[in-house]
Design goal:
Length: about 300
């Protein structure tokens, strides 16, 4: 149980830590001291390096630092993590924070070390806590393993609406992952064009949530983008079996079958998608029309 703060705050953090070990600390978490206004690149470099990506603040600064703001936007931090093939998974709240650090996951946190009317925004990396002493442990600024009271940390963290970020290899699930949030985070890798990482992330998601339609579709789409059409077909076939009433699974299967020259199978899948209908039926009809037109073009003249 976390102590060292009073009233409602005490209860909030005490409840969060009730089922946690009394003390957790990541001794393997790397540390980079920050330069002036460079807490964002430093925090991201620590998280990326821990995840297995070679990174340092100087090389990350052009990706995340905005000179006019003298700092790094949260969206830039997320975008950079994705471009490096890592799942950027947002977290919030004491219970989530403590659970992740106890799972040996460092968490980037955004604090306001100033006042509401004069903010001093600062990124740090949570690497531990000690419930008996009522402190959290941060890689912050130029100080590794900085010990900060829960009361002070909560006040500064609350000013960012308790914003936190995990930066994980696609093969690693957050300890507190939920299906929608994790699949959405992996989708971010697709949007960044990190298809191999996205495929790994979707496969990982399916080990936890085998009935996730979005993960099955994302896996097939990622393989398709990689040019691994055989694996894409296999993924979409699994999806059609698990979700036989979803036209989207048959529509995408039709696409990859057609790419492989499997004309009749592609036509059958496209027709099934149209039969199932739904809100995307016009897309399914277009797929069917394109496959039919292509099949007609390839028929020999008589």
């Amino acid at each position: 149980m976390l102590t060292g703060c009073g009233g409602a705050l005490h209860r909030q953090w005490a409840q969060a830590g009730a089922d946690m070990p009394a003390r957790c600390q990541l001794d393997s978490a790397p540390f980079y001291p920050q330069k002036t206004f460079q807490c964002g690149p430093a925090a991201l470099a620590m998280a990326l390096t821990w995840s297995g990506i070679s990174a340092d603040p100087d090389t990350l600064a052009p990706e995340v630092f905005t000179a006019s703001r003298k700092g790094s936007l949260q969206s830039a931090m997320i975008g950079s993590a994705r471009r490096h093939g890592r799942v950027a998974y947002p977290v919030s709240g004491p219970e989530t924070l403590l659970a992740e650090v106890c799972a040996a996951h460092p968490v980037i946190v955004l604090q306001n070390l100033g006042l509401s009317w004069y903010p001093v925004w600062h990124y740090a990396v949570l690497v531990g806590y000690d419930a008996h002493e009522g402190i959290v442990i941060l890689h912050s600024g130029v100080i590794p393993y900085k010990r900060v009271s829960v009361k002070v940390f909560e006040k500064t963290w609350a000013r960012s609406d308790h914003w936190g970020l995990l930066v994980l290899a696609p093969a690693r699930l957050p300890a507190t992952a939920t299906e929608d949030a994790y699949v959405s985070a992996v989708l971010g890798l697709e949007k960044a064009g990190q298809w191999q990482a996205a495929a790994e992330g979707y496969k990982n998601a399916l080990t936890r949530w085998p009935d996730s339609l979005a993960a099955h579709m994302g896996l097939g789409n990622s393989y398709d983008a990689l040019g691994d059409i055989g694996s894409a077909e296999a993924a979409f076939r699994v999806a059609t079996h698990r979700f036989p009433a979803q036209g989207s699974t048959f529509n995408n299967l039709a696409h990859v079958l057609w790419k492989q020259g499997k004309q009749q199978a592609a036509l059958d899948a496209a027709r099934r998608a149209v039969e199932l209908g739904g809100s995307l039926v016009n897309i399914y009809r277009k797929t069917l029309e394109e496959i039919q037109a292509g099949a007609d073009e390839e028929r020999p003249c008589r």
